[in-house]
Structures are given as C-alpha cells and as structure tokens.
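User: Predict the structure for this protein chain, please.
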Amino acid sequence: MDIYAQKQRNQRVTVALFVGVSLVLLGLGVALAFLFGVTDPFVAGGIGLVLAAVAMLITWKVADRAVLRSVGARPPDDSKPDEARLPGIVEGVATAAGIPTPQVYVIDDDSLNAFAVGRSPEQGKVAFTTGLLSHLERSEVEAVAAHEVSHITGRDSLIGVYTAVVLGIAVVVARILLRGVLFSGMRGGRGRGGGGGGQLIMLLLAMVVAAIAAAAAFFLSRAVSRKREQRADLAAAHLTHNPQAMISALEKIDAYHSPVDFSHGMASHLWIEEPGERSQESFLDRLTRTHPPIPERIDYLRQMAGERREG
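Assistant: Here is the predicted structure, written as structure tokens:
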C-alpha cells in the first residue's frame, strides 16, 4: 500500500469532514433562529456561520489544552525511567515523520491508552497513560508514539477535537431548544407576538433539526476515528519499520483493557483504544463505537505486513 497516496486521501477526507461538521453547525444555526422566532434563511445562515466561527476559534485556541486538563495530563517525571525515556522516543518518530517534536504528557492512570491533540504538526501534543508505559516494551511504546504522531501529521487530531467541540455545542443547543419547547408548551403555545400554535410548531421543528444535527455530529465523531485508526496503525508500522511492535502493542492493550478512570466527555474518539466499558457486541455497539475492534486492527496490520513482505 502506498503510504503517501494514503496520506493524500486522508487530507481529502479531512476537508470533507470539515465541510460535514460545518453543515451540522449550519443546521444548529437554523434551529436557534427558529427558537428566537427568526425564519429569514439569511439570518439563520448567519447564525450558523457564527457558530462555526466560534467552534473553530475554540478548537484553534483552547480545545487541546482543555482536553489535556480534563484528563489530568502532566509533563513526564525525569526521576521515573519509563517517563524519562518518553520524550526521546517521541522525538525519534517525529523526526522520521518530518514534523517538529510534539509536547509530551503523562496521565496517571492504570489503563493502557494514549491520544494526540494539536491544531497543526507544529502544535502537536501527545499523552500516554502510566499503565501503558509500565506494561509495554520500548519498541511497543515507540509504535504507539508513531501511531499518535501519524494522527498529528494527518490532521486527525485537529478534526477529532473540532468534532468533539461541535458535538458539545450540538448537545447544549439541543438542551436549550428542549427547554424552549417545554416552556412554550407550559404557556399554552403562546409565543412572542401571539403566534400561538404556529410558534410551538416552529419550536418543535427546531428541536427536530437540533436532534438531527446532534446525531450527525455524534456519528461524524465516530467516522473520524473508525477509519483513521487502521491508517494510523499502518503509518506507525511504516515509521518504525517494525509492524510486529505495533501488533504486540495492540495485543497488550487489548489483553489489559480497563476503562479510563476519568470522564472523557465527547473526546473518546481521540484515544488509541475506546476508553469506556466493553459491552456485549451488538449491531448498536458496532454502529456507535468510535474504534474498530482491536482484533480487526491486528488482522489488518498482519495482512498489510504480509503484502509488504511478498512485494
């Protein structure tokens, strides 16, 4: 598989996802316009554009730092060997990827997990749990670091955080609209200007639009991760020239699975493994999970490694 062609395709998909989440915000703008009794499509579109601008500003300026704070990320402790070696490992894979070395963080948690954030390769940040550092060999930590660095180079971390912000906004707007519908109902459907039942119908329509927008943002956040995890696994194998290290890292992550102890909110799709409780596999589980099952990712890597050897 041509990794550079894959990277170009990844960039095109990133643009498409940005368009998708922007359309979600436009839908939320229309819903908010209905809430306040504004039906002019240009005004509704303007509200959507303002929402998109606010979401982009939050993503660009503070979202990555907010995610790191929410999980208690801290700089590595040089007195601990597992943490002291980490910046050098990340620097090595970043150099191989041709980007500046991301800032490195550690999260005090027994689970085996990691994630990357950052609005650009120059602003990349990677975080690793202490559980991952203590259970994985150096080559396996290097593979995980390469996986996360590939998310930064492919702009996955940017679109991932952006989608998390959009999903958060969608949930807030949906709650506002629900309260608007309930309040209008309690007042007997009398809106401003004596709109009566018509105002309530507009609010209900707005609620439907917001619900659709929130659902779209939810599934976009899943789409951001499911396809890209396999690409990042493959990129890690390419960067380290050691597919087996990535395979064995995933095997250990799968075998030692435990949920992350803190609330990760809308950002579960950022982690190398979905950080929640595992449940009985069902159609709904497969539809809503942020990551492909790890055994599938391992099989994919083994298949790609076999193709490379044969080539």
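The radius of gyration is 22 Å.
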